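input
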Amino acid sequence: MSQKLILVVEDSPTDKRIAVSACEKAGYRVITAGDGEEALQMTVDQKPDLILLDVILPKKNGFQICRQIKSTPDIQKTKIIMVTSKSQDSDRFWGVKQGADGYLTKPYDDSELLELIKQQL
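output
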């Protein structure tokens, strides 16, 4: 079995470092993107197994990216976990409505993140 590839899409350097560190320690290969357009391009080019997608991003927000990925035949089966500091039920609703497979609210602990990833993969 090959190592699963995770794309971490996060514009906060601190939050990106936390997510990358947790995923690498768990044995996943990790690539990163800092904005929505870069995330879309990397998903098409690299075909990650799962995307940790921040909601608030430059250029395009996480909801827009999620909708685009889930409506593109070549990449629509990619698992997406929305990660955000937005904890309102409406935010969770919109994440799921756009096709997100999971939803995680910041701050989270590594075990919570890794359990959600494991469930999706």
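quick obs: The CA atoms of residues 13 and 83 lie 14 Å apart.
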